[in-house]
Amino acid sequence: MVAGFGTLVVSIALALAGDELVRPGLQALLFNWITVPYLISGTIAWWRRPASRLGPLMIATGFVMALTALQWSTVPVLLSVGHLLDLVPAAMFLHVFLAYPTGRVAGRLRQVVVVAGYATAVVLQLTKILLGINPDSLFTVTTKPVLAGRIEQAELITMSALLLVGAALLLVRRPSAIRVRRRPVALLVDSFGLALIVLAILFVAGLRGWSQIETVRHVTFAVLGLAPVVFLLGLLDARLARTDVGALLMDLRADPAGDLREPLARALHDPSLTLAFWLPKYGSWADSEGHAVTLPGGSDGRATRVIYRDHEPVVALEFDRSLEDEHELLDAVAAAAGIALENSRLQAELRARLHELQGSRARVIDAEQQERKRLERNLHDGAQQRLVALALEIGLLAGQSAGDADTKARLMQAKQQVSASLDELRDVARGIHPAVLTGHGLAVALESLAAQAAVPVTLEVVADGRLPEHVEVAAYYVVSESLTNIAKHAHASTASVRVTRSAGRLVVEVVDDGVGGADTERGSGLRGLADRVEAIGGRLRIWSPADGGTRLEAEIPCG
Amino acid sequence: MRVAIAEDSVLLREGLTRILGDAGLDVVAAYDNADDLLRYVRGFPPEVAILDIRLPPTHNDEGMRAALQIRERHPGVGVLVLSQYLELGLAMQLLSESADGVGYLLKDRISDVEDFTGAVRRVAAGGSAIDPKIVSTLLQRRRSDDPLAALTPRERQVLELMATGASNQGIADDLVVTLRAAEKYVSGIFTKLGIPSTRSESRRVLAVLLYLRA
């Protein structure tokens, strides 16, 4: 830190002194416009993010930039050093921009570009000075102006090319400012890219000897100085973001069990944020509702950060890739949300277990239903048909035995027995599964139920068309069980059944004017009915005051 | 009299063909599915079509749909639906327009050969044949203010027979009374229940069933 400040002071003094001595006016102003912001931004960055190399790198850039002013000195040693360093700032700009925001140059291509930049700025610069491109330099060994000129051309062309490649690399990874409200970052990358491009243009202009070179130089310096200013804005934005982390803490404290995504998305300035919770029992990720999800894994402009607790993943934040640049913000948000995230993970796990439980209940009921259907079908196609054929055969025999009254009477009796068996079998089969429901739907099936009830029943079915089978079956059993209960316990004089469909739910209401006092907890019939309805995501409610009347209402989701 | 059949059980299809043939009816077609029957009826409308309510491929409502289709498109063809189960709702669907030339019987009824062939002839001739079980279900139905209580036991019997589609002569034969007596019972019932009386025997079936169902 002290070293940083020391460097800052020395550099500013040097830059100011150099300018005052040699290049007054606009040029000096622009020169300071570059060096001073870099030194200030670098120092602030170093202070704010000590772990990042970016701060020192920016300070070094400003310092070297200041040192290049020495080339206008009249003292031979200083002048020689100034000349030697002339192109190093260009390589350093490239380095700083490509190293943003971590201070490390990530990616093979970026590393190659940065190293090549330094190599060009040092090796080719030294070579051309050794060959005497600048007669005043102390490093001049020999004087070969033509060769030195060639090398200078190669040096400037190479450096321009590297700068343009650097600009391209930056702009390729530019975050989408439209999708996410991350304008400062996008703006920063834009200014970096622009700075590299104008720097490349400046070198080409120098090479071609353009007449407007001074104007180009001014523009270049102005743009180069803009970058650290935008960088400062970015830091300020991050600071503002951290105040959002404070708000996040307040939010979490106010409503620790509430939805986490909203406050996190606000704090991270990323409305597209999604959360996934790690469920160790299931070995998979799940959303807050407990439904299994897969992590996207860095595709499609998205990035993921997994938060661990005791080396176990707890939650994954999935966000816009541009957020990756703000490690600190992510760290702060993750730390702030730690406990609440653990809570949410437990909630997600609970919901997953509920889904699993409900799924298995529904599957058990469905399997039972299919088995019942199969049994009824077997009875219908097997025993029932055979008995009907048998009755027919006996009937024909009875018809042929017209002469023998005794035989005929016994055959008729046998036929009666078969008919009675058929009646009993019909009741059994209907109890196993009401085939009319599968064949003709709820309205037709309920009509028979209502007609056979022990009390007068008014039936109203306002549900057009067929419903999913499990819904029809559940609704049928609700009515059938209710009417049985009314017959057994209610001492009612009338009852009504009403089936309506609205907003994706089938509502079955059974009302009687009996004695009341019905209860889902007593009597296994109503409890079993409630279980059945709840297993398919529905709800059964009963109002049965002791002073009379019972109203049962089942709500069944029907898509 | 030409009869066409759709019944997927081989035993019953052959049994039906036999008893109807023995009774002097002409079974011109016997299929195991509804589509073939519908195609036949389109080409050569018979006097009566007999259908099992559960037919392939799904055994859900193929037979019922075919029956309703024949009633709609071929009003001259009597339709007799056979089923293992009786459903009041389906009976009312079959009778929704009129009770002319329609029957709905339990499969067991074919074993009472004479009654059954009689029902087939009645339906073919434009009358109706409603299973007595349907009628007794309706009669047993509880009512808050029961006007049926005003009927004598004899009148109840007559009402039941009337609802199954029996003619006045049929009622007289069944109860072993004179035709005149049967007619007197019928008009007495209409008066007591307040049902507008009608001469058409099939129309009075519908009137009585609708009255009982209400």
UniProtKB/TrEMBL annotation, chain A:
Residue ranges of every copy of the Signal transduction histidine kinase subgroup 3 dimerisation and phosphoacceptor domain listed in the record: 371-437
Catalytic activity, reaction form: ATP + protein L-histidine = ADP + protein N-phospho-L-histidine
Entry GO terms, CC: membrane
The EC number(s) this enzyme carries = 2.7.13.3
Residues passing through the membrane, by range: 27-47, 54-72, 78-100, 112-133, 153-172, 184-207, 219-236
One Pfam family in the UniProt entry: HisKA_3
* Keyword vocabulary terms for this entry: ATP-binding, Kinase, Membrane, Nucleotide-binding, Phosphoprotein, Transferase, Transmembrane, Transmembrane helix, Two-component regulatory system
The cross-references to InterPro entries, in alphabetical order and at most eight, read: HATPase_C_sf, HATPase_dom, Sensor_HK_TwoCompSys, Sig_transdc_His_kin_sub3_dim/P
Report if keyword S-adenosyl-L-methionine is assigned.
no
Where is each Histidine kinase/HSP90-like ATPase domain found? Answer: 472-557
List the GO molecular function terms. Answer: ATP binding; phosphorelay sensor kinase activity; protein dimerization activity
Where on the tree of life does the source sit, at the highest rank?
Bacteria
Q: What is this protein called?
A: histidine kinase
Which organism is this entry from? Kribbella kalugense
TrEMBL record, chain B:
Q: Name one GO biological process term.
A: phosphorelay signal transduction system
Q: Which residues form the Response regulatory domain?
A: 2-122
Q: Does the record's keyword annotation contain Transcription?
A: yes
Q: Which residues form the HTH luxR-type domain?
A: 144-209
Q: Does the keyword Nucleotide-binding apply?
A: no
Q: Name one Pfam family in it.
A: Response_reg
**Where in the sequence is 4-aspartylphosphate found?**
52
Q: What is this protein called?
A: DNA-binding NarL/FixJ family response regulator
